[in-house]
Amino acid sequence: MRLLCIADIHGRADALEKVLAIGKIQGCSKVLVAGDLCFPGPEPLRVWTLLTSERAHCVQGVGDRALAVVDPDSLKPSTPQEVERVQLLRATREQLGEVILACLARLPATFRMAVEDGGEILLVHGSPADPTTSMTHDMDDAELSALLGDEPADTVICGGSHVPFDRTVGTTRIINVGSVGEAPSGKIAHATIISTSSAGVEAHPMLIPLQAPEQAPDA
């Protein structure tokens, strides 16, 4: 079985379309998404439409929860940056509408699936112990072990930090799949293809170039 594993799309439909196309070329039969789907845009509705058409297995990220339950009118921004963020929140909620917001509110915190070698994959936005807290590449084994909790699964697929990594802590393999829409460089999308078989789990991380922003013509 081949799984396209992604996270942190943040409303970037252009990046998501490229990643999904590569997943199809690579023969992926399922799409797993580790949260933060639609906010802050610019195309949250298109992202949701693409994911639903793929029947993607999605878990709830911090941004998904905030988008679904926070009333922009209840916020009191105090800086220009905060004002802009609240405006984006309001605009994104309006684009999605009440039905999709309700779907975001109901997304599960985790998704588990059995694989051919008898093991289990756990999909989560942040960490098994706390889905709102990310596991990051610069944490030591003790920090990661605490965030794995008591029932992590054999392989944990996560996002949240926007920086991909692949580590084994104890008996658990942690695969952070980075970010489709907000990779630190801003010019690539991250994705990982997970291949599962009776022999085990293999991970194939990908860096997918995105189209550079158009430059203004010379004066």
Describe this structure in words.
The protein is 30% helix and 25% strand. With 219 residues, it is an alpha/beta fold. The protein has one domain (2-209): Purple Acid Phosphatase, chain A, domain 2 (4-Layer Sandwich). A five-stranded mixed sheet has the order 3-2-1-9-10, covered by helices on one side. A five-stranded mixed sheet has the order 4-5-6-8-7, covered by helices on one side. Helix 1 (13-25) links the parallel strand 1 (2-6) and strand 2 (30-33). Helix 3 crosses helix 4 (80-106). The longest helix has 27 residues, at 80-106. The protein is globular and about 50 Å long. The relative contact order is 0.19. Residues 213-219 have low confidence and may be disordered.
How are the SSEs placed, and which strands pair?
Layout: E1 2-6, H1 13-25, E2 30-33, H2 44-53, E3 57-58, H3 62-69, H4 80-106, E4 110-114, E5 120-124, H5 141-148, E6 155-158, E7 165-169, E8 172-176, E9 188-197, E10 200-209
Parallel strand pairs: 1-2, 2-3, 5-6, 6-8
Antiparallel strand pairs: 1-9, 4-5, 7-8, 9-10
Helix pairs in contact: 3-4
